[in-house]
Amino acid sequence: MIAGFTAVEIAVAVVAGVLAVVLGLAGRRPSDLSLAGPALVELLLIAQLVVAVIAPAAGDRPTGNPVEFFAYLLSALVIPPAAIVWALMERTRWAVVVVGIACLAVAVMLVRMQIIWTVQHA
């Protein structure tokens, strides 16, 4: 994994999550503003998947369990689209809060993935 790219992913997920939680608690319903963040997080996760598949071929292997890493990554890939679909179906302020919590959960998962890739020893 590329540390700088992961840091950007985590920052985007945290900003998107905090923004959505604040908008939801302020009573805003799902809109382009509240759903653009998780969409961007999803695009970054797809790029992370590509990097994680190519990196071992380039000599950058995970120090931890690769199965655990990819389980986290594939799970994280499902969370933002599920939150977006939920928000579009429910259309309440609480759906926006759920979108924010989903983004924050992805940020935590990205931190764990970075630890698995760079710190742990299999």
Helix content: over 70%
The helix/strand class is mainly alpha
Q: What is the CATH third-level topology name?
A: Four Helix Bundle (Hemerythrin (Met), subunit A)
User: Major β-sheet, in short?
Assistant: none
Q: How many E-type strands?
A: 0
Helical run tally? 4
Radius of gyration: 15 Å
CATH architecture descriptor name: Up-down Bundle
Ends: how far apart?
Answer: 16 Å
The averaged pLDDT comes out at 94
Uncertain runs with pLDDT below 50, 5 residues or more? none
CATH class: Mainly Alpha
**Molecular shape:** elongated
Percentage of residues in DSSP E strands: under 5%
Reading the helices and strands in chain order gives: HHHH
Integer count of domains: 1
